[in-house]
Structure formats: structure tokens, C-alpha cells
Write a structure and sequence with these properties.
Distance between the termini: 54 Å
Helix content: 25-40%
Radius of gyration: 19 Å
CATH topology: TIM Barrel
Largest sheet: 4 strands, parallel
Order of helices and strands: HHEHEEEHEHHEEHEHHEH
Strand content: 5-15%
Shape: globular
Amino acid sequence: MGSCFPKQIERRKAISTERKTMRDLHQSCGEDFPACALRPTDRKNWMAGLNPEKIHIHKILWPGTHDSATNKIGFPCITRPFAQCQTLSIYQQLVIGTRVLDIRVQKDRRVCHGILVTYSIDVVIRDIKKFLSETKSEIILLEIRTEYGHDDPPDFEQYLVHQFGEVLIHQDDNVFNKTIAELFPKRIICVWKPRNSPPPKAGGVLWSSGHLKDDWINTDLPSTKFESNLKCLSEQPPISTRTFFYRVENTVTPQPDYPIVCVKPVTGRIHEYARLFITQCFSRGIENRLQIFSTDFIDEDFVDACVAVTYSRIERKA
């Protein structure tokens, strides 16, 4: 116990120092990037508002959510604060502009985050179908994976194909060079990542894990995560030449060796710096690598920033 106390003091100092580093960077660099003042008038239909015939898939900066279906996970005020990464339902996230969903499942088809569980995947699918029925030009990138430490749901690939049917965009590397309009009436790119079952086959209805990549940096230190995200992003090929999606997550995560283990106060250390990250991508010459940008507790401003970058790309300002 005695040896633990000095370590906690050092961790607290490190967190404080890194938070100051972020504030100083923000103060010196600001949030200025092409079209940064853009605010879509209709976030629910923001792709339609930018013209589906002009938006190529590789030019989109996709706003995404991390652990998307955790708004009702665990028990309120007891276990929920340790696993909840979003307060909005899947439908509400889509309405405010989210276009990439990160869904974790276990063997019984219930959504989970670690050992904590929530509603059935059917709730997620119902929300997605409702959103699709109310819009005409929005494309969703849906990632579903078996959570670490869990077994795959039986026959899950067939289940997904049955649920979404004709709206699924088949795996094809040429998709990245197509416009949204060229993909209609298909509207979902579904990436299925099983742990033990065979992965989706190339050219099939679903996309495999190799088509959605990221570099997960597991830390609660905001400046460490921020700079690591920039470094990993800089090592990726430009979006114009990629045949996979690459995700950057504007999150930091609680660590088991530190007393603060609730998600919201921890991820709050980096949450407000999404626009700063985009600004740094431009200033460091790696904007042309940024493709999926995800966050905990997504809000309208995060979506607006991603839409602004997408607009700047299709208008040849970036």
C-alpha cells in the first residue's frame, strides 16, 4: 500500500502536466482549418447537403463513435459510469451526424463492453433501419465485432446479411473511388470482425477486419494519446491511395492502476481538442491521411468539424 501512494502522486502530476500541455498547444495554435466555420443546417442529412454526386467515399472525414451502443450499459449510477462511452442512442447519434458505429457483441447477441452488457443487437439494427427509412442519401459505416474475451454469436454473418439485405454495399476496393450517388440504393458498409469464426470473404456482402484499421493507444494521458495519434496517422498512406479505412480515436481511457476509472472524467481530458487535432493534421501536412475520426460522448461540434473537412475536400480547398 505504501509503495502505491508515491506512484499515484507521480501519475497525478503526469496527468496535470499533460493537460497543461494540451491547453498551451490549444492556446498557441487555435482551431483554424479550411471551412472550419461551416455548420451544416441539417446534420441528419449532412451528406445530402454536400451533394451525393460530388462526395467520393475516400474524401469523407467520417465522424464516428467509440463503443457506440453503451448508452444503457450496466446499472445506472453503479456500473454504468465505468463502461458508458455514449449517452445517446444509436438513432440519436445518427440523427446528429454520426456515420461510423463501433458495436461490440457477445455470444448471445447482446451488446457488451468488457464484462458489462446492455440490450440486444436487435435494438441497434432497429435504430439503423429507422434512420435509413427517414433519409435518402446518408451512408453508414457499421463495424460489428465480437468483444475481447467473448465467443462469436452463432451464424452471425448470415444474421447480418438477413437483417440488412439489399442495403449492404458489397466489399469492393473500387468503392473508395466511387461517389455516394454511385452506391445507391445500397447504404451500409458493414465490417464484421469475429474472434473465432471465419472472416468475411473478399468480394462478399460483408467486409473483413483488414478493411478497417486503427492503432489503439491505451492511455489516460491526453498529450501522449494526441501525439501518438498524429504519429500513427502520419505513417498511413494518403486516403487517395488506400483500399481500407483508417480510424483515429479522440479518446483516452481509464487505467486500472489509477483511482479515477469512470469513463467521462477521463475521456474529458482530450474530448475538447478534436478541432485542435484536425488543425494539427493540416499544419503538419497529414490532413490527407485523416479518414475516420471517432470520439466518446459525441456532440454536434465534433460532427460539424468532420463535415467541414469533407466540404473542404470536395470543394478542392484541402
